[in-house]
Amino acid sequence: MPRRLLAVFGAIVILAGLLISGAGRPADVFGAGGPANGLDHFGIPVPATATAGTSFEIRVTAYDRRDRVLTGFVGPATLSGTALAASPNGAVQAPVATLSWVDGVGTAWVTSYLSQAAATLTVTGTVSSTSVGFPVQPAAATALHFADAQNAFNGQPVDTKFNNPITSSLATGAAVKVLALDAYGNRVDGVSVTIDDDDAGV
User: Fold this and answer.
1) How far is CA 41 from the centre of its chain?
2) Strands 105-110 and 116-119
3) 56 FRET partner, CA 20 to 30 A, in 134, 139, 180, 197?
4) What phi and psi, each to the nearest 5 degrees, are found at residue 17?
5) The CA-based dihedral angle spanning residues 52, 58, 64, 68, taken in that order and rounded to the nearest 10 degrees
6) Residue 30 near residue 64 (C-beta atoms within 8 A)
7) What span, in angstroms and rounded, lies between the C-alpha atoms of 50 and 187?
8) How far is CA 29 from CA 5, 39, 43, in A?
9) pLDDT tens-digit profile of 88-118?
10) 74: alpha, beta or left, given left = phi > 0 and alpha = psi -120 to 50?
């Protein structure tokens, strides 16, 4: 076999071997350790439950379309979602959490202030992914309110006669209800409240 044909035949064999092994395909070149344009989605683990005002750490992972970690991904990617909402009483505006990336994993400390049943986090880079919902429980009750509560639904008690039920100022015959709120304005359930009348019997 002539030397030139032998060289061509050898090159074809090498090329075929590379194609079979997958080398040279864009998906592999931009796979683990590849640049950001191999990004397909983010993995966003969230806590089973969170408490308003208490920080928790999240670890976001960048993946390619084959679910391989993109160790070369360094951002940028932003965090958003209902878990970063402002507090109900306006004391805390929507917080900002910044992801720090190392080997394709972005970490951040997140603090939620709005109590809700299914808070979510969204990570947005060249693509966007949203976490599953997780509950945010209210913090411990710090105040009791009537009508001056941030999310009050009942009025102050009205004047009444001794030994007669006190009713709400908002509706005739409506019972007076006390709201227990945490420091951020979230309603807190299960709080035992005793109302004393210092003028009883006068």
Assistant:
1) 17
2) unpaired
3) 180
4) -65, -40
5) -140
6) yes
7) 15
8) 31, 12, 21
9) 988 899 888 899 999 999 999 999 999 999 9
10) alpha
Q: How do 134-137 and 116-119 pair as beta strands?
A: antiparallel
What confidence score (pLDDT) does residue 144 get? Answer: 76
Residue found by looking up tokens 């209800």 in the block = 177
Taking the C-alpha atoms of residue 155 and residue 171, their distance in angstroms, rounded to an integer, is: 8
Dihedral sign of CA atoms 168, 170, 173, 174 in order: negative
Q: Tokens 């951040």 belong to which residue?
A: 108
φ and ψ of 122, to 5 deg:
-120, 130
In the numeric block, the tokens 């090329």 are attached to 15
Q: Whole-model pTM?
A: 0.67
Strands 134-137 and 143-145: unpaired
